[in-house]
Amino acid sequence: MAAFRYVIADVFTRTPLTGNQLAVFTDARGLDGENMQALTLELGFSESVFVLPAEQGGTARIRIFNPREEMPFAGHPVLGTAFVLGAPLQRGVVELETGVGIVSVVLERDEGGAIAFGRMRQPVPTVEAADERAVLAALGVQGSELPIELYDNGARHVVVVLESEAALAALRPGGDAVAALGVTGLNAIVGSDGSWRSRMFWEGGEDAATGSAAGPVACHLARHGAVGWGEEIVIVQGVEMGRPSTLHARADGRDGTIEAVEVGGSAVVVARGEFSL
After folding, report:
1. Bridge pairing between strands 101-109 and 205-207
2. Which residue from 166, 161, 163, 167 is spatially nearest to 148, judged by alpha carbons?
3. Catalytic residues
4. Measuring CA to CA, which residue among 102, 63, 86, 79 is closest to residue 21?
């Protein structure tokens, strides 16, 4: 019987029991994909990460699973894993090999040397038109303040801009309707200048903090002139779930072309455990 240790972190928050939950198995050698999927289902979080030796020159290779399937990329698993690995390795930069290539996370420390914030350089997403009628019907709203588009950075996110926080709070999309869109997440946002509120829905329900969507949100707002290129925005998510989260995002580009995407936030380790298999 082998023991597999894991760390539980709350991501995109500095406050335990808020943010988005993540389990990180710090040494997943000896686990196959079937075991990883079963462990993810057992824990019940939106994602779990399994750390393996690097193969492409990064700090480590990771495999990311949600309760249904493996994912090539997801934001809060990457950031949370960087926090978990960065502390014992005493690294300022953690480079994680994902299904979409190496994602680099720069870690910032406080005066006491503890990791306080991380900034990940995300894959630049492709952009394509979305089926606006189907998206609006799934969300249960009449329209969007900006065009509705699909962004793919290894996760596929649709972004809809609503007119008020009341409209955002009233959303109750069904899982089947979201699943029929064929996307990772259906994101509804509202705000102005650098301050935004967001909710992300997927076929399994709602997500407390979606790092893979925060980058596309910044891209969408910059491409359509709602914020400036290179301007950092702050996104608050998870409020309606009782797990408030704070994400920072910035898109660099020009003339509608995205050149770089950065998403940042904090994380806190709240528990450690072990499975015997």
Report:
1. unpaired
2. 161
3. 47
4. 79
On whether the CB atoms of residues 205 and 213 are closer than 8 A, the answer is no
Q: Are 240 and 209 in contact (CB under 8 A)?
A: no
Whether the Cβ atoms of residue 104 and residue 95 lie closer than 8 Å to each other: yes
Task: Give the whole-angstrom CA distance, residue 56 versus residue 246.
Answer: 31
The H helix count followed by the E strand count for the chain is 6, 18
Q: Return the exposure string of 216-253: e unless at least 16 CB atoms fall within 10 Å of the residue's CB, then b.
A: bbbbbbbbeebbebebebbbbbbbebebbbbbbbbbbb
Tokens of 74: 């997801």
Domains of the chain: 3-123+265-276 (3.10.310.10), 126-262 (3.10.310.10)
- Report pLDDT digits (tens) over 128-178: 999 999 999 999 999 999 999 999 999 999 999 999 999 999 999 988 999
Its pTM surpasses 0.90: yes
